[in-house]
Amino acid sequence: MYVVTRAPVVNSLPQPPSRHLWQCNQVIDAHNSWIRSIVVDRQGQCIISGSGDHAVKIWNLDSGQLLRTLQGHDGWVRALDISPDGNLLVSGGNDGKVCLWRSGHQVGELKGHTDSIRAVVFSPDGQWIYTGSQDKTVRRWSAEHGTQQTLLTHPHWIRALAISSDGQTLAVGTHDKKIGLYDTTTGQVRHRLKKHEGEIVSLAIHGELLVSGGADKKVIFWRLRDGKFLGELTAHTDGINSVSFSDDGKLLATASRDRTIRIWNMTTRKLLDILEGHESGVWSAVFAPDSRTLISGDWAGQIRCWQLDR
Length: 310
What we know:
- The structure is a single chain.
- By secondary structure, the chain is an all-beta fold.
- The protein has one domain: Methylamine Dehydrogenase, Chain H (7 Propeller), CATH 2.130.10.10.
- The protein contains no helices and 28 strands.
- It has strands at 22-29, 35-40, 46-51, 55-60, 66-71, 77-82, 89-93, 98-102, 105-110, 117-122, 128-133, 137-142, 148-153, 158-163, 169-174, 179-183, 189-193, 200-206, 209-214, 218-223, 229-234, 240-245, 251-256, 261-265, 270-275, 282-287, 293-298, 302-308.
């Protein structure tokens, strides 16, 4: 397992190196509304984007060609995830729908939420889907049968979810600036984390490290097993919309309303590069499985593909 060393708390906005390590090699005018969520398939061949135009679109990563448009939502598509075996796609929308897709076709809809879906995530074994909503609940669904339980209820909106690699701990970020670590089966809270001064917008887990990004411009690091605070970065000049690890855990990408993506070395927590070019706030930035390719989507509906230039 990749181990991240502890670094001191950092509060000032760091400066990047003089040379850009990442280059934009493709721009796709993908949607006519904001792109809230992007995922890359397990083979690193396709980009999947969800947008305010109610559509989910699948793109060839190398060519940027549109392969398929998935229509099933009646509102903004806010959240996407792919099953570990790559066969099932889940999408959540402003319409309260949780849609299941296989091979470009809708194969199911998970019904139960009464308000917008803000986050979806598969369990590592692919048997369960966790969904977080503005109806203030997190629900746990059988991916095979669609049966569900209300795992937990919170006083405020659920904004972000992330699950541990062993599938036993669910991190839940909420509109009231808090993070809870919960048992994925019982919904029992293990730890409550409070450091952010703005709503929690994104969470990511790699190994024993939990990273949270908030509207307060901060990235905060936590130890997953006990919720211990490990440090923070004032990472951007505006709110953070997305935090994402590379598959090898060595890099972290943060995307912001300030129109930039920042790439961080997770051993030293040093800033490696600032990716500029988006003309509107960046809402999602994720690594492809090779850890050398990054895909980002913005408020204007544009996708950019970035490649590590070395």
